[in-house]
Amino acid sequence: MNKTTSSHSPIHVIGGGLAGSEAAWQIAEAGVPVILHEMRGVRGTDAHKTESLAELVCSNSFRSDDATSNAVGVLHAEMRLAGSLIMRCADLNQVPAGGALAVDREGFAEAVSAAIANHPLITVLREEIRGLPPKDWDLAIIATGPLTAPDLAEAIRAETGADALAFFDAIAPIVHADTIDMDICWHQSRYDKVGPGGTGKDYINCPLTQERYDAFVDALIAGDKAGFKEWEGTPYFDGCLPIEVMAERGRETLRHGPMKPMGLTNAHNPSVKPYAVVQLRQDNALGTLYNMVGFQTKLKYGAQGEVFRMIPGLQNAEFARLGGLHRNTYINSPTLLDHSLMLKSRPGLRFAGQITGCEGYVESASIGLLAGRFAAAERKGASPVLPPVTTAFGALLNHITGGHIVSDDEPGKRSFQPMNVNFGLFPPLDPGALTRPEGAKRFRGKEKALAKKQAMASRALSDCASWLDKAV
Ligand SMILES: Cc1cc2nc3c(=O)[nH]c(=O)nc-3n(C[C@H](O)[C@H](O)[C@H](O)COP(=O)(O)OP(=O)(O)OC[C@H]3O[C@@H](n4cnc5c(N)ncnc54)[C@H](O)[C@@H]3O)c2cc1C
Questions:
Q1: Which atom of ligand 1 is found nearest the CA of 21?
Q2: CA distance 397 to 25
Q3: pTM, whole model, 2 decimals?
């Protein structure tokens, strides 16, 4: 039954998870009818347990709600400013969790489901979509998430030309560049190779003596590992082996693999050859994030911090994301999507949520929010107005649609990895934006880092408010 009472023709949203529900809500609130296609009720996934829209498949936490100095807290605040359904229902179903926003999962999902069901411009169809949207769905959003049903995943794979779409995803940790100790580390590409687009100094290198290497290998082998889940039956992507699995294969394996010291000279101590080297490669165009090359891992999060901070130069490292292994489905968005999340090869078809390469409930919902707004603007004859990159919305969108650097030095390997929102994705502050607190003699370390986050947060919220005033 169609409840449409608008002169616009509908926009189709496939997938009623965090992203799809938010996208549908934003479109409908803009006065455009929506048909939301959700398969649960007809076909389940390996992780969802109910038929509710926006079911949280694992933790009940939306993480920090601190909008003054935490990037995901800023994203919460921006979503609230933009009239997010997901945030409204989360706030209404909050349970005590310190500084985090945690929710009663059933109450939350029921609230989202009821709001969608009761909206006069939204029709929910319980059906599995098995292929790309038909051509007469001129505007559509695919928001089918990490567990996209196989037939649709195959159709997307065929359209995008990817070798694989769903795989056992091995993720290496990503470090905030300004927490790497450059008195110990140095910039150099192996054999000073300049390569296409490089400078010969593209990597940050961390040197290890034999003693430090041995201690590191022991810690890797002893570290707490995450277990495999039943639904994780997909093979490793590109044969990416976790670093601790390599370490277990022999004491020298890492030194002949990702930690090989060849072609590298310690700029701080050129006469002493490092026994092993950990390399980090620039991960975003801003140069604020570096990923640990070849360090995909299934060590538990706590163990990762402890073990990786044993690496000289990373003793104070802060991680923008830790490594992990899980089944995932996502497209290579930086090359496939335009800045409004539209598939370049299929005008009118957008992607949203985790399938675009963001990670987490809040990030997925926020990308749904943007995709919904962009599609609604288009339906109303306007061009989508993009959020500025200084906002959490814009920083995440920019990472997905182009801010990430696509690595070409490891042929065949997909370097774009799902990412939580973090301040490393935001452009640096203007010079002079940080002023030393009145009366303080020194302004550095943790105090300065906090001031930087606070300044980025306040810039984001003010720029978000201006963007929302302009956007359709
Ligand atoms: C096992 C697991 C645990 C996770 N744990 C966490 C966590 O603790 N915290 C966190 O922040 N994130 C977690 N994530 C990531 C989390 O799933 C996503 O961040 C978030 O749910 C993604 O939102 P989404 O809307 O993109 O996808 P989803 O919320 O998964 O929604 C996608 C929807 O599309 C539907 N669908 C799929 N294919 C079709 C089709 N062909 N036709 C119609 N409908 C279809 C699905 O039924 C589903 O309802 C986890 C993911 C998995 C797989």
A1: 25
A2: 19
A3: 0.80
Same domain, 319 and 175: yes
Range name among 146-150, 192-196, 212-216, 459-463 with the lowest pLDDT average: 192-196
307: domain range? 170-327
- Which helix H or strand E contains 398, and what residues bound it? helix 392-398
Count of the separate structural domains present in the chain: 2
* CATH code for the domain in which residue 225 is found: 2.40.30.260
In this structure, the residue with its CA closest to atom 8 of ligand 1 is: 59
Angle at 207 between CA 205 and CA 211, to 5 degrees: 155
Ligand 1 lined by 258 (C-beta under 6 Å)? no
Q: Which atom of ligand 1 is nearest to the CA of 15?
A: 34
Do 150 and 52 belong together in one domain?
yes
Based on the domain organization, do 93 and 115 belong to the same domain? yes
Whether residues 35 and 159 share a domain: the answer is: yes
Q: What's the CA-to-centroid distance between 442 and ligand 1, angstroms?
A: 46
Closest to 419 measured CA to CA, from 148, 71, 69, 23: 71
Ligand 1 atom with minimal separation from the 353 CA = 26
Percent of the chain with pLDDT over 70: 89
354 lines ligand 1 (CB under 6 A): yes
Burial group, residue 7, by CB count within 10 angstroms (0-12, 13-18, 19+)? exposed
User: Is 40's C-beta closer than 6 angstroms to any atom of ligand 1?
Assistant: yes
Over residues 189-220, the pLDDT tens digits come to: 888 987 666 788 889 999 999 999 999 999 99
